[in-house]
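Entry for the shared binder. Reason: the reviewer on the internal report wants the predicted structure included alongside the sequence.
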Amino acid sequence: MLDPKIMRRVLYWAILPAVGVHAQAPDGAAVYRKACAICHEQSNVDRMPQRSTIARMSPELILQSLNSGVMQMQAASLSAAERAAVAEFLAGRKIGSEPVTPRDAFCKAPPGDMRDPFREPSWNGWGVDISNSRYQPRPGLKPEDVPKLKLKWAFAFPGAVSMNMQPVIVGGRVFIGGRQVQSLDAKTGCILWEFKTESSVRAAITIAKPDGVDRWLAFVGDGRTNVYALDASTGEMKWKTKTDDMPVSRITGAPKYQANRIYVPISSLEDGPSANPKYECCKYSGAVVALDAATGRILWKTRTVTEEPKVIGQTKAGVNIMGPSGASVWNSPTVDPKRNALYFGTGNNHSNPPTGTSDSVIATDLETGKILWISQMTKGGDPWNIACTTGGPNCPENAGPDHDIGNSPVLVDLKNGKRVIVFGQKSGEVHALDPDNGGKLLWTRRIGTGGTLGGIEWGVAADGENVYAALSDVRLTPRDAQMRRRIADPSKGGGVWAFRIATGEQLWHAPPVPCPADRENCSPAQSQAVSAMPGVLFSGSVDGRLRAYSTRDGKILWEFNTIREYPTVNGIPGRGGSLDAAGPAIAGGMVFVNSGYANWGGVAGNVLLAFGVE
């Protein structure tokens, strides 16, 4: 059998003639200057990775991004040969050079059936439960055990620079994704099975067993809005459904299972192509889709922008301006069985006119998708796209502050019988709503200034009495105008707050831990979603440190610097980086966390780390 590296190179060169490559391959540098540099050479585009970051990726990962991932819209006009050429130019190496997972990384014994996976505590989907509490009541750890946590194993993802996906722990297995979905043994990290999706997977996986189905299923959403039902024991595909046909649509929030249905949030990449002056911005609308969990059949779809986009003007170059648009659903929905309702947060509009559904929490009926109520946090609208940071003509007049609600709303049943929805916003605020009174605002507490990389980026945690929030507020400044580099401001961002859910009273505030004096491009910001267990809150920071705080007073109980190189259980070179996006998962006496996040210029990394008590 041919070596996998050689096979990939043979296939690569075999297909190039079929896409029009004859005597000479395209010049990757020229393609990059023409099609990519407009964004990736900008020093003021906060959410766009710089060329130096992309250079850390493998050419295979760059090519997948261009073909079916986050850059597919921007690369649509390039030929297959041009996409391959620019991938090799940016990575500085040929396709086929990526490390291959060795055979001994796979578990020696075949995976057994998951017969009763929820007999033991789990971390299922994004937020553990249908309320998205991010609180593990039975962690298998006591607060006094947390200072004893040690690294048990590390698992590396080839070619990756950012780790987006929430680890899911069910039935003694880890379910994780990226360029493919993998199931690992939670104790050892060996690979049980792999499944290749059509596009990369960023959304957390949800494990459930619908009525009439004899197997536990893993529900997966990818970057092309495909939802897959896989046999959770073996990885075998049972069904696949395309949930949205708009080219810029994707799935970033975890699908949510409830009563034989899967609720799928739909978000968008349209603010990216808006940086192109020739792009007609903008036409996309966010959505939530309900599927039959046993068959994948679409039951209903609710758009967050109900008006059809139309031409509302033209740029100076004569390109149509379209609207309304936007209001992506970035987060995993929350289920309220008592009200038969589904709650989810929305993002900004991408163009004018503003809508009453942007930067909102929306409640829909579980059965029909009918909107029950809307609670908008940023009044007057929030039209914004990437062109607002590049100075492009597609930036809307009176552009908004980009104050998405990227957090999943957390539904809390208080001891006094009252119910509250709590969540954070990129405005730098924590909000509380009344789900039983049309989403009425109960209280708001500000913890930061907010912004495109600011406020509460990914998620809060709630233990039934208190809500815990960490502050991002990353600030980037140009370092070298000629090289167009940006570095993080070490004096901005970070810190953790605790509030009493019933009243909004602040209980404590743990200030950010300063960056080391000798560390360049360091930020103390705490963008990563927080996770809690009885007595302990876990929060990761952009400087790569995972910390455990006492939920009583905010005192730091334990700290681990993840920025280092690791020997990995799958034999792929591994290195930690910034902690961002998905937060720690706690189950079975272990804590799992991703390390590495270079999307906006943070420290690149490619590892999943597993901690336990010796």
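Summary line for the report: The chain has four domains: 4-35+59-91, 138-164+421-614, 167-242, 245-409.
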